[in-house]
Amino acid sequence: MKILFVCTGNTCRSPLAEAIARKIAIERGLQDLEVVSAGTSAHDGSPASDGALLVGMERNMDLGYHRAQTLSRDMVRDSDLILAMGPHHLVRIEALGGAGRAYLLSEFASHGASSRAISDPIGAELDVYRATADELEDEIRRAVDRITAERSSGGRPA
Q1: Which strands form 34-39's sheet, in the order they lie side by side?
Q2: 105-140: per-residue pLDDT in tens?
Q3: Which helix (H) or strand (E) holds 142?
Q4: pLDDT value at position 124?
Q5: 120 carries an active-site annotation
Q6: Measuring CA to CA, which residue among 140, 4, 127, 119 is closest to residue 55?
Q7: Is 13 a catalytic residue?
Q8: Is 62 a catalytic residue?
Q9: Which of 48, 69, 116, 134 is most buried by a 10 A CB count?
Q10: Predicted pLDDT at 155
């Protein structure tokens, strides 16, 4: 299963989400879970932001390899589940053919009980990045719980 995380610049939220999801997949032994990230307005090749890099290091996640990439129709087509940080990301994903497989991260994780955007920490203090990473980890753990439960019941994550 391929999960695509989408934010704006692909330097803060979505690379953190990708790293967190990868860490959770390893913890839970979910070897068939592939995670990637992209941005709706990314500058291709940009590294993760300093704040994302530092918070990643604090949590034993290496974002040094990360390079931003712009969301494309091919990425959307090749993903089983697309999790967006905010409503405007969802609009772009759906315009690229992702309707039916794209959700706000909080919406998917909460089974529709929440439709809260994940706030963008770009340019903020390290504490804001830490809070964003905490929020992402909570939501991604719940999303992976949902995926695991739906798989074990024979359903498809949706």
Answers
A1: 34-39, 2-7, 81-84, 102-104
A2: 999 999 999 999 999 999 999 999 999 999 999 999
A3: helix 126-152
A4: 95
A5: yes
A6: 127
A7: yes
A8: no
A9: 48
A10: 61
